[in-house]
Amino acid sequence: MRLQIKPRSNGLYVGILAFFVGALSVLSNHAHAQGAVTGNKAVYGTNGVTFSKVWIDASGYWTTGTPDLCGIINIILTQNYSQYPNGAVIDARGLVFPGQRSPIRCTVDPFQGVGATSPSTILLPAAVIPVSTTWTLPNNTKIIGEGVGTLLSAQAQFTGSYMIEMGSSSSCPAEGCSGVGIEHLKLEAGGNTGVNGIHNQYSQTPSYVNDVILSDFTGTGLRIEGPGGTAPGAIDSGPYSNMTYIPPMKAGPDCNSTSCPLCVDIEAQTRGIHGFTCRGNQYTANQQNGQGYPGIVVNASNNTLEDIHFEAFWDAIEVGNTSSATPVSNVVISNVTGSPSDTESTCTQQPSGNLCQVHNVVHICGPNFNSGSGHCPITGGTVSDVTILQADDFLDVQPPATNVIQDDVTGTTLVRLSSTSPPTTVGMYVLGEALGGNAGHTRFAVSPAPTGNFASSSTVVPTWGVGTVGVATQSCSTPGALYSNTQGTSSGNAVFVCTGSSGSFVWQPIPPVP
Amino acid sequence: MKSAKSPGSSWLWFGAALVLFGYVFGSPLPASAQTYPPCAMGQGFNAAYGECTNGSPNGSFALIDASQYMNQGDICAAIHAIFANYNGNVSYGIVVDARGFNPHPGIPQGCTTNPWANLTTLPYSSVVLLPPGTITLSTKWTLPSYTSVVGQGPNVTIIQAGSGFSFEMIDMGTSAICPETFADCPSVQIEHLGVNGNNIPGVSGIQNWFSQEKSWVNDVAFTNLAGIALDIEKSTAFNSGPYTNLSMSNVGTCLQIKAFPTRGVHGLTCSTTGSSGPAIYLDGINNSLEDIYIQGGSSQDGILVGSQAAAGNNLLFNVSGSGLANVIHLSSNSTSGVPNVSDVTILGVARSGGTSTIKDDLVNKTIGDTTVGMYVIGEPIQGNNANIGYSRFTTSTSRNAATWLVGPNSPVGSGSCATGDLFSQTTVGTPSGTLWGCGGGQWFLIK
């Protein structure tokens, strides 16, 4: 039986229809918000919904299928960006759907064809972004992720040496780019052995990297270049802060002559490295042909390295691994620790129980190397004025012996005492400059090697002790060391020197001139 | 003349009306109606003009606006509901924008539950943006891995302990929710926030016992906390930090570090209510404390190093104190016969009022100078295989400090000197000499 509905009148329907048509017309006028372009944010205005250019929502360009994040950003920057002469925030976080891990494509460098343009800040989504070619960030461009969930993953057949270039000759002014920033994301090499992380040879102040994880790289995580060719260098760039580098672990390839995991290579004066965890693997914990693999290389003057932890590199920090005629000086290193790897299980299989320890926490390169400690790959440069504060050979066990300081300028090795001793720490070790005739160097250290926490194989490091007792004729082990007795009541009982011969040393008062 | 009526045309009109009803009120607006990408819409989505809705705004998942979840109850219930809806185990992470969740501006809003509690799958990664105003907690927040909590400023977004609150207000991870082998919750970050303990006895601020890499506190003001404002303890807080741009006032203890190495504390202003205990306990190895200002009572220490555990290899850089007994106090306590303190570098310490800048129990030395440029205590020095003192450098000319002075002329005639000092004379004067020592309070010529 057919349902019988009897309309009261068609006039009523016409009225309803007219109402909705009218309502639609009003809403539509507001919705279309004359002048709105794709990506404008919708906001409520005085007459309903309208548009705002406070940022560009990249999801407005996503019409079908899997979104091409990089293509969309490139369209915005190359086709529509003239509408934002003062720059804009491009919000690409909406290119994924919540709770689905929906895929994203990235078919191009989002910045290809973008020259020195208006500033842009690009917010990236929490997603795996498959990167198939280098992203070259132009002048005044920042990319900001959502943290570790924003993963830029290098794809097979990746083209380029680095995943990200901070500026280029075509996208920077001649004097260099500024305001290039990278924050809150993770880069992953994805098994590509020839791919490196971030390269800066064009961006200077205030360009920086913050809160970035560099994962699975078999090469360099971050390289900061000095001037060279037409590139102005990354002078005064930074800071580079809160970063982590992790190479391939168990299945990672062995180091070879052209590529080995390296956390940071500093070739320019910067605003420093502040907060970094630098991890190696079973290969970088060893040496090859007498040369140790470094975690961070400092080959330029005027840099600070602060609050850094290392695992599984032969040399945690190498200073002056260069043959450049320009001296490397004024380098301040503070609060650095080296320890065995807590993630690399294959290290337990190494000969002699090598647990992927750090062999030299700080290695100052120079001609007077200790063959047992390895030498820097390049030793032709000159290093001076290096201040080391709070270096720690932390949790390493023996054998083999490990060193907290290896100074190849003065030929000094500070060797950890034993596996049962507390961490071998150095509160202050300052290498200054050479005396004329290369007779010695200015140097201050508070490490009384070869006593205390240092093995007897350590080099003698004279220091200055202070106490309240007279020590005349007492034995000592650090010839050249001074001792002040602040309770000395006479000139012959106040200042002492550790002196002697043939391995037999005693504290002798420094007498007044007769 | 009336037109002829037809049942078919009536149905047509009715159907058209339904279609229009659905178009106008159905697709863009309802919270529960959810289409799938692209052109996705869901409760709390932003709206942006796009190409797939014919010029009308469509949904954007740039963030989830918590203000559209007010029907859940309070702000914490709303955040919890958003996690449940959108950040399950198949999510890469979300941004929850609760900046608009402020139902009664100017009046504190309540938070009766922990937003991260009892989720069947913990959020993979989340950023939570909090609104201005005061949020009163009934229970502590326990932040899981990869969580960022971001306010709008330390004096703008304030979380406050409600009546009956106890223990700490925020845990950076817990042993129960941190999934790593060593109970590690990485990437827990707290920024631009005020933490107010409401002067309730026993309430502390932020506790990090379980968060390591990339876990930090930045731009946070701690106030009215009877307990410890910021407590960093255990080996499972290894490599956490940096802890930056902090201010603490009217708190029992500003900071306690009893951890393995951290990435340091950089920028801290501290004012305590205590009258005897130190403002800062430093009982861990390899930490850098930089740009610190402490105000406290005349019997208090500013930074007490090594009183509870090994505290070697710490760097204290630009520390100033006001009204304190000792701005920095190095303890002589030991653990298993080994002194807790060694290799401490102090660069730039100053006092205003109070008693001393540095009290060093290792060498039984107190320095009262108003400023000290450098004081480095190293390691034990031996004579006859026994400890006879410590390696030490200082620029203080305080009595019994033993320092090295440089001048163009002989120091003789400059008055009494501090026994143990050295003096390098850089020009030949009268009497002639190059190196002088001080013994018995008088300069004597060495060479």
Describe the structure concisely.
Chain A contains two helices and 31 strands. With 514 residues, chain A is mainly beta.
How would you explain this protein's 3D organization?
Chain A is mainly beta. In chain A, 7% of the residues lie in helices and 39% in strands. Chain A has two helices and 31 strands. Chain A has a 24-stranded mixed β-sheet that branches. A five-stranded mixed β-sheet of chain A has the order 27-29-30-31-28, with no helix packed on it. Chain A has a two-stranded antiparallel sheet with strand order 15-16. In chain A, β2, α2 and β3 form a beta-alpha-beta unit. The radius of gyration of chain A is 31 Å and the shape is elongated. The N and C termini of chain A lie far apart (134 Å). The N terminus of chain A is likely disordered. Chain B has a 25-stranded mixed β-sheet that branches. In chain B, strands 28-29-30-31 form a four-stranded mixed β-sheet, with no helix packed on it. A two-stranded antiparallel ribbon of chain B has the order 21-22. Chain B contains two helices and 31 strands. In chain B, β1 and β2 form a beta hairpin. Chain B folds into two domains: 355 residues, Single-stranded right-handed beta-helix, Pectin lyase-like (Pectate Lyase C-like, 3 Solenoid), CATH 2.160.20; 45 residues, no CATH class. Chain B is mainly β and 447 residues long. Helices cover 7% and strands 44% of the residues of chain B. Chains A and B meet through α1, β1, β2, β14 and β18 of A and α1, β1, β2, β26 and β27 of B. β27 of chain A pairs antiparallel with β27 of chain B, so a sheet runs across the interface.
